[in-house]
Amino acid sequence: MNTVNFFVRHQNEILQATLQHIWLVGIAMLLAVAVGVPLGIIVTRHPWLSKPILGGANIAETIPSLALFGFLLPVPWMGERADRLVIVALTLYALLPIIRNTSTGIESIDAAVRQAALGMGMTQNQILWQVELRLAVPTILAGVRVATVLTIGIATIAAAVGAGGLGEFIFRGLAMVNNQLILAGAIPAAALALLADSILGLLEWRLRPARQ
Amino acid sequence: MTAETEREPPRQAIIEFKSVGYRLPNGQTILRDLTFTVGRGETLALLGRSGAGKTTALKMINRMLDPSEGNVLVEGKATVSWNAIALRRHIGYVIQDVGLFPHFTIEQNISLVPRLERWPAERTRARVKELLDLVDLDIDKFAKRYPHQLSGGQRQRVGMARALAADPPILLMDEPFGALDPLTRGELQKEFQELQRRLGKTVVMVTHDVGESLLLATHIALLEDGKLTGIYSPPEFLTAKEPMAAAYVANFRMYEDAERANEHR
Prior knowledge:
The structure holds two protein chains of two kinds.
Chain A lengths: L1 H8 L1 H35 L4 H13 L2 H8 L3 H5 L1 H26 L3 H9 L4 H31 L12 H10 L2 H28 L6
Chain B lengths: L2 H5 L5 E11 L5 E11 L3 E6 L5 H8 L7 E6 L2 E2 L5 H6 L1 E5 L10 H5 L1 H5 L4 H14 L4 H4 L9 H13 L5 E5 L7 H18 L2 E6 L2 H7 L2 E6 L2 E6 L1 H6 L3 H21 L2
Parallel strand pairs in B: 3-8, 3-9, 6-7, 7-8
Antiparallel strand pairs in B: 1-2, 1-4, 4-5, 9-10
Helix pairs in contact in B: 6-8
């Protein structure tokens, strides 16, 4: 009961932190899609770039988030504002699933379909937009979904460098040994992740091409 | 038009291979010194074993591949001086695995080239109806369906309709009936024969089926290890002395012999 009371009493702060959290993750995901999908397409066009691109994204993925924030802190433009830094870091984390799923989605298209498209006289651009991307959309969205859930979790650590978000409550709660505070951050973060997962899952299902 | 009037001179070459060679980037030779012509309204079957270079030769006609040596001419102009996109839209293309777009309806699949060519919607719709009639598919039943809802034979019919959509004068077919069961294959071969009688397209088809070549082709080009062994009319092919041709005919006759043996049983 105490926890419910706590939530009611602090609803404004919690709402504020949730919005901040959504903002951090939302901007990072937009950037990650804007960068990751083109990189994924490049990988399918120039296989020799697949190692450096996927390798780079893989390395970014393995750096512990707290350490990554630390690495980015001395970088001039980024160190100025904590939210900039956090958005860049979250974007780096989100890249790998998006790049990988974009290239997998395009490469798994039936070779006969691509042959026919080429033989019918479609240009490379027409094949990309009307055939490849359209058929790869569900796979790309699955990557975006994984990346979103991942970054919602990682974004809680953003509070450690002062970027706000739901992590604020968690860090404060840890410092004060106050479970209610920790839950005030953890529960909305978990709810956000579940919500994003189901919305993107639904979208993925709606956009799948007709199949067997 | 009867076969006799079609064969009469002046034979107008629409596709010409002039000493065409093709090598892979790794140096392996796929085709060497290929020279032949296909006249307007003729059906040429490229016959040979797997790996003989039939598909490679076919793909040079619509510039899916460029020759390493020599020239391929389409309507008197070397393919390398054609714009590849314009050339491909000028040539119908049918492949064994059909390659229908799974996210397009049958109607959208068939109307692809007209839509790429920005035909008015009304004309495109009328053309789709005409084509579905041509390949004997009921428009009300099939237009809005997706490829996965069709049988293999129906899909191949749609592939044929799609290739004919913009009424190209040339049709390339790469083992168009190869993936079908024998009965469906026979039906489609017969329908294609009928279609060809009505449309008079210039057709080049890749096949390893002698029966199909004899049934559908006006000329049979025999390929072996990337080289042309000879070009025959169907009657010439049946009596050819050339060992490879004779082997094909003997193989084909095997079935007739089996038939005769069973009659006497």
